[in-house]
């Protein structure tokens, strides 16, 4: 995609890298970690931060196969780890520690369907904690490591809904739990595009929830903090340090 522009009649024109023009009545920014770049094409900003996120996929083993009544996944909040099944293997996913933030200038234009090299040193303590909780993981071989980009907003929630003062332009991006959130997001977006509005009140996910204080420095600090504390316990009236305690209370994930 090379350019995006709104025409005088309210329709949207997308110009591809091949010079082809595509005109549509409705535009949806569903570009994931590229969503901010899409907004820049029309002179607007969107505050997502892209970070390097990785997980380990183990070899299949009889000891890892769940019984008929076993859970398909297990979250370990205090060690910030998820152990889950992917086909006939298990995966270890972690969201904490010291994430590696990646700016758009560090992600090549042709990065689609590509991954970064693994960085297992960042996973070591979390893998050990998961093995302590799920002992069969200790004897499972490693099939591979997936290390790719993941977008985060300052409060960790996605952007869903219309763009302010732009006709027929909607957001469905910056999902940090995309598979989990996909069904509800798709339903709400469809109800938004078809006049009438969504069934639910989704103002906490609206594009305008971050106003003037949501500048670049604030966004980076808050997004990293949310990522580090994804599975940390939440306490009543808790205020975290990133972005300034007096500027923004911690948002509850929805």
Task: Jot down its keywords.
single chain, 2 domains, globular, three-stranded antiparallel sheet, six-stranded antiparallel sheet, 18% helix, D-Amino Acid Oxidase, Chain A, domain 2
Q: Structural class, please?
A: alpha+beta
Count, helices = 4
How many domains, in number, for the residues? 2
CATH class of the largest domain: Alpha Beta
Mean pLDDT: 78
What would you say this structure looks like, in words?
There is one protein chain. The protein is an alpha+beta fold. It folds into 2 domains: about 120 residues, FAD/NAD(P)-binding domain; about 100 residues, D-Amino Acid Oxidase, Chain A, domain 2. Helices cover about 20% and strands about 25% of the residues. The strands form 3 sheets. Strands 5, 6, 7, 8, 9 and 10 form a 6-stranded antiparallel β-sheet that branches. It has a 3-stranded antiparallel β-sheet with strand order 1-2-3, with no helix packed on it. The protein is globular. The two termini are about 30 Å apart. The C terminus is likely disordered.
